[in-house]
UniProtKB/TrEMBL annotation:
GO terms for molecular function: oxidoreductase activity. It comes from Streptomyces gancidicus BKS 13-15. The keyword Transcription regulation does not apply. The keyword Ribonucleoprotein does not apply. Keywords: Oxidoreductase. This is Short-chain dehydrogenase/reductase SDR. It comes from the Bacteria. Gene3D superfamilies: NAD(P)-binding Rossmann-like Domain (3.40.50.720). Belongs to the short-chain dehydrogenases/reductases (SDR) family. Pfam families: adh_short_C2 (PF13561).
Length: 241
């Protein structure tokens, strides 16, 4: 039975991916920090899904996470590095605290989670990074969020080459505007959402399930000859001149 660890897996895209993979026969572990979302995940996800409170910014948490995953599963076939934050602000208003918070979770936390998970990864396994279309297509207020997520994209080719001898494939998914709890947290008004939709050729937001399907594909044997690639799941956003 294949195994998967999903960081940031208690809500949104991570939660949808956990549900999809479990339905397809995976043993699944998810992480989160928010007590409410952790409680909901424990009560609503299937009982054999391992739900772990873990802060990616705290390396001792990551060590404990890997110990829990090793004890439950023994090894991993998929590592989905999905945890992250996005708190938009104009560059003139970004504080050092906010900058460090983004960098510590979006890049440093994911980097060391990957490093510490590698001893558990089976040869021929798959690593998927959540990056986001904003790292390639500009948006006012997104400088820090885009840069810290984009750091994952910058390391993608080197990581794919480094892990190729073990046949571990490393790819990324870049969601566009997706209907998740994060979109609600950003407090975008109705007029703002209409403006966002008008820039998407499909004229709608994506769903968490659609991104989850892309992750499941990259984890599958059907993607066995794909590595070092970033798949945009964005309804065609950014294609126009």
């Amino acid at each position: 039975m294949p195994t998967a660890l999903i960081t940031g897996g208690t809500t949104g895209i991570g939660r949808a991916t956990a549900e999809l993979l479990h339905a397809r026969g995976y043993q699944v572990a998810v992480t989160g920090q928010n007590p409410d979302s952790l409680a909901r995940a424990r009560s609503e996800l299937p009982g054999d899904v391992l739900v772990v409170r873990s802060d990616g910014r705290v390396l001792s948490d990551t060590d404990a996470l890997m110990s829990a995953v090793s004890a439950r599963f023994g090894s991993l076939d998929l590592l989905f590095l999905n945890a992250g934050i996005f708190r938009p602000a104009p560059v003139t208003e970004v504080t050092e605290e906010s900058f460090d918070e983004h960098a510590d979770l979006n890049f440093k936390g994911q980097y060391f989670t990957l490093q510490k998970a590698l001893p558990l990864m089976n040869d021929g396994g798959s690593i998927v990074l959540t990056v986001g279309i904003g790292s390639r297509r500009g948006s006012p207020g997104a400088t820090v969020g885009a840069a810290t997520r984009g750091a994952l994209l910058a390391m993608l080719p080197s990581l794919a080459l480094e892990l190729a001898p073990r046949r571990i494939r490393v790819n990324a998914v870049s969601p566009g505007a997706t209907d998740t709890p994060l979109l609600d947290k950003l407090g975008v008004p109705g007029s703002g959402r209409d403006a966002m939709r008008s820039r998407i050729p499909f004229e709608r937001f994506g769903s968490s399930q659609e991104v989850a399907e892309a992750v499941a594909f990259l984890a599958s044997d059907a993607a066995g000859y794909i590595t070092g690639q970033d798949i945009a799941v964005a309804g065609g956003y950014g294609l126009g001149a």
